[in-house]
Design brief:
heterodimer, A: mainly alpha, 6 strands, 71% helix, B: mainly alpha, two-stranded antiparallel sheet, 14 helices, 4 strands, 76% helix
Chain lengths: 468, 336
């Protein structure tokens, strides 16, 4: 199956595969944890039953998604050592402490309070339970802080020196953690996680509204999700633009690939909307372009010169086709998100938010949009960093473990098989949970498991439910 | 023994790994015992005893691995490729085991399959961890800053032996945990299993202890040469004493003591491993000082460890306290 692939190509495939699966779970659980905290706060504040119903409804989905995020994340943390051991040796003194802080400040916090959040509502009282929910939500955000710091350092390394053993060592931890692209990347990613969750919640709300527009739970979640889309999508587009300008400053080659600029444009660069980048011939075929628009966006001037890939040695080019297209997918979905947000404002003003079938169908179709946009954005930034693991300093080919290709090939096949079985089933169970509308007296994660509930929640909860 | 920041970090990583071994040890052990409890109600109770805490237990594994990369990057870079296959097997075992906690309750028709995934995943993870331990103890082939052995070097009779030893030990932790957390017939069965698993664990400890000194001359000198034997002899003597107490506590049908004594037994065996390995982190090739990250990395993290680990231990203890007491299938709540 993998004849002709060398160990490093296989290791890259494995990283791409396992990371693509992993990233969607934290993207979802960062947003969902905050949403759960908001729902519980609204319940404690207003006492309205609909909020606790929605809380318990989404808590079950959170539990399944979080579990998948945890196990796929453990794979990621060990993959640095198994497949990228030279990278680990060289960058360990910098990347290692950042990830160690992620474990100490975030993973333990999430894991420690997760049990209470899932099973403890009747055990510790409402306020302590809300504290647990809040800790889990804060934990997911702290986790994003550290992992994006580590990732950003690989993109825009700063504050380091080299030691005689050839390792990167910190000269200034402040500059390492708050490296030049980190603030942009963190904001862009956290907003992406919030939008991802909003579109899932909105899609589920729309699905149930299409069947019954009177469902209170569906109305509340649809309305909340549409507010998120209307308010956050424009902020995200602005944040993405700022991030792009930061990338132009620190990783200009990545922007050349995103824009498809093989050639330099001394008198203003066109914006290539679509086309087929041809790496070998170094041009974008069948390009549809707007003259001077790229210069306007990137330099805020029509005639500003922009350098192209022709100013960079070929061995430092990323794969232009991948970066070019993934970037367009992300941006396109971003504008669709803005579109649905504006549409929902219009419908709200007209008073047809819960009646408009067209809006509901649109929202349903956009349900997975966040996941696709996150994946596309991740591909843009990571493929755009190639052929380096530490941008400009450490090549990917010099980062891999001294492994034989069959070892990496077998583990890759094993991960592919296991991931499709395990996460395929997990997504199926999540979809089945989403297919049920949130109902009156919605129970927490264990409503279909009386014996377990008997162990964890008090007898009163059991008595009202009975064995099934 | 010189005491410096690298030594301190060796103790910190050793502590994280020990926390992982005993905490995930009992929930992996419990998973492996699933086939001995065919009744659905029993399995529900078993899973309920660990469901609220397993995720925190497993986080120590991430700290152990991540901490190793941070504090001893060279050791991490050499050891991970050396034990590549057991690590991949462990990860896949942990995937199946971890998702089973949630998936099992989301389906009626496929519950049995997730029970098998839970038990099988636990067994594979435990066996792989034991094999990895043996592979590290027997030494790996290092050239320069790289692992230079083959990708089957980890597989030897010794590593298989340590694999079984860890399986037996985790089984013992799981069985005594069940004794502590359950009642009725489930508990009676757990007593029976505890006895057999204790015997298996002791046999394994003896076998591994006898085999280890013959792996490397250094191990032999460390344990048996005068005057070292004065300092090392208390460990096997303490193991024998704890084993007797443990046997008695199981025979007396005590509640908490079997689990606590099992933890002590693990602690002693772990200390024994430390005696064999110190000061190497890759046995006989790389010492903790050679592998240590630059001082400013170690210092940067020491602040976090000093402040955060005590806090982590506090809220972890709180979570265990919230879910304290026995778990039942037929009555609501816990009897505390």
């Amino acid at each position: 199956m993998f004849d002709g692939f060398d160990a490093i190509t296989l290791a890259r495939l494995q990283f791409t595969f396992t990371m693509s699966f992993h990233i969607v779970f934290p993207a979802f659980s960062i947003g969902l944890a905050s949403y759960l905290a908001v729902l519980e706060a609204l319940w404690l504040w207003t006492g309205r039953e609909v909020f606790i119903n929605l809380f318990n409804y989404w808590l079950k989905i959170f539990a399944v998604a979080f579990g998948m995020g945890v196990v796929s994340g453990i794979v990621m943390s060990y993959q640095f050592g198994t497949n990228w051991s030279v990278f680990s040796d060289k960058t360990g003194p910098i990347i290692g402490p950042l990830m160690a802080y992620e474990v100490l400040t975030a993973f333990f916090l999430e894991a420690g309070f997760l049990g209470v959040m899932l099973f403890g509502l009747d055990r510790v009282g409402h306020k302590l339970h809300f504290l647990a929910t809040l800790m889990v939500a804060i934990g997911t955000l702290i986790s994003a802080f550290w992992i994006l710091s580590a990732n950003s350092w690989m993109q825009t390394p700063a504050g380091f020196a080299m030691n005689p053993a050839g390792q990167f060592v910190a000269a200034d931890w402040w500059k390492v953690v708050f490296n030049p692209s980190f603030p942009y990347r963190l904001v862009h990613m956290v907003l992406a996680a919030y939008l991802t969750t909003a579109f899932v919640v909105g899609g589920v709300g729309a699905w149930h509204l299409l069947r019954d527009t009177r469902l209170e739970g569906a109305r509340v979640m649809f309305s909340m999700a549409m507010w998120m889309a209307a308010l956050v999508a424009p902020i995200q587009i602005f944040a993405g633009d700022q991030h792009g300008l930061n990338t132009l400053e620190h990783q200009p080659v990545k922007v050349m690939a995103m824009e498809g600029h093989f050639q330099s444009h001394p008198n203003g660069a066109p914006l290539i909307l679509f086309g087929i980048p041809d790496q070998d011939e170094a041009k974008v075929k069948y390009a549809i372009e707007i003259p001077k628009a790229s210069s306007l966006i990137l330099k805020h001037s029509l005639d500003a010169p922009l350098k192209g890939l022709d100013t960079v040695p070929r061995e430092n080019w990323p794969k232009v086709g991948i970066v070019f297209w993934s970037f367009r997918i992300m941006v396109g979905l971003g504008f669709l998100m803005l579109g649905i947000g504006l549409l929902s404002l219009w419908a709200r003003w007209r008073g047809t938010l819960y009646q408009s079938k067209l809006l509901h169908r649109f929202a349903l179709a956009m349900g997975p949009a966040g996941f696709i946009a996150v994946l596309a954005g991740w591909v843009t930034t990571e493929a755009g960093r190639q052929p380096f693991t530490v941008y400009g300093l450490l090549r990917t080919v010099d980062s891999a473990s001294p492994l034989a290709a069959p070892a990496v090939a077998s583990s890759l096949i094993a991960f592919i098989v296991v991931y499709f079985i395990v996460f395929g089933m997990g997504v199926f169970y999540i979809m089945r949970l989403m297919h049920q509308p949130p109902h009156h007296g919605e129970q927490g994660p264990r409503d279909d498991a009386p014996a377990r509930a008997a162990g964890i929640t008090p007898a009163a909860a059991l008595a009202s439910r009975g064995h099934r | 023994m010189p005491f410096d920041i690298a030594t301190l970090w060796a103790f910190i990583i050793a502590f994280a790994v020990f926390m992982y071994i005993v905490m995930d040890g009992f929930d992996l052990g419990l998973g492996m015992l699933f086939p001995m409890f065919p009744k659905k109600e029993d399995r529900d109770v078993m899973m309920n005893t660990v469901a609220p805490v397993w995720d925190g237990n497993e986080t120590w594994l991430v700290l152990g691995g991540g901490g190793l990369m941070a504090a001893f990057p060279l050791a991490y870079a050499i050891l991970m490729p050396a034990i590549y296959t057991p690590i991949i097997a462990m990860l896949i075992g942990l995937i199946f085991r971890g998702v089973a906690f949630e998936f099992r309750w989301r389906t009626q028709s496929e519950r049995n399959r997730w029970d098998i995934a839970f038990a099988g995943g636990s067994l594979i993870a435990a066996m792989a961890q034991g094999i990895a331990l043996g592979a590290i103890l027997q030494g790996v082939h290092v050239e320069g800053r790289h692992y230079a052995g083959g990708w089957w070097d980890w597989l030897t009779p010794f590593s298989i032996l340590t694999g079984f030893a860890v399986v037996a030990g985790y089984g013992l932790l799981g069985a005594t945990w069940l004794v502590m957390k359950t009642t009725g017939e489930l508990r009676t069965q757990a007593y029976r299993l505890s006895l057999w698993l204790l015997i298996a664990t002791l046999v394994a400890i003896i076998a591994v202890s006898l085999a280890t000194p013959f792996l490397q001359a250094d191990y032999w000198r460390r344990w048996f040469e005068w005057p070292n034997i004065l300092f090392t002899a208390p460990i096997p003597i303490a193991v024998a004493a704890v084993a007797l107490l443990l046997l008695k506590s199981i025979a007396d049908k005590q509640d908490y003591r079997p689990f606590v004594l099992s933890l002590v037994l693990f602690g002693l065996s772990y200390a024994g491993l430390g005696v064999s390995m110190y000061p190497y982190i890759v046995p006989q090739s790389v010492t903790i000082w050679q592998a240590a990250a630059p001082a400013n990395s170690l210092n940067f993290m020491i602040f976090g460890v000093a402040v955060l680990v005590p806090i982590i231990l506090c809220y972890t203890a709180w979570a265990y306290w919230v879910f304290r007491g026995k778990v039942h299938a037929d009555s609501g709540g816990y009897h505390s």
